[in-house]
Amino acid sequence: MKRLEHFEEKADHATFCPVGQASLAEGIELISRAVLRCRKQKIEKLLLDSTGLPGFHPPGMPEQYRIAERIAAIAKSSVKIAHVASPEWMHYAKFSLMVAKNRGLDAKHFRSKTRALNWLLVPSKNRTKRKASELFDLGEEKNRTGKLYRSEA
Hints:
- This protein is an alpha/beta fold.
- The protein has a single domain (7-123), classed as 2-Layer Sandwich (Transcription Regulator spoIIAA).
- The chain is built from 5 helices and 6 strands, in the order ββαβαβααβαβ.
- The protein has a 6-stranded mixed beta sheet with strand order 1-2-3-4-5-6, sandwiched between helices.
- α2 packs parallel to α4.
- The N and C termini lie far apart (41 Å).
């Protein structure tokens, strides 16, 4: 199997920040390999930054469902994922994150790598059960329609 580039192991987590042009299928395959590597190496926390993979639009709901199921199945509830995503993904990925959460994946989308890392490194036992509206950290940025999102933190 080809070496997984842009994957780095840290003391308490791993980071995966793929860059370059990729199709949706190629991007999902890379992410799947990173999650699998974490699970197999017993790395419990993954900071995933997909903002370096431009060139494709977020998928429709059926594909979001399949992607979420796949990532959750690979993680097997043993990898916590903080995903730094583009504003487009933040807007469209709410459904897929709920699907993944319902299958045992502890994950959240962020626009900021700093906020993602802060959330990732907070011990899970110290967090309370989250509502669906808390699955995204939107910060204080405007979405594609110009509406202002405010952070819940």
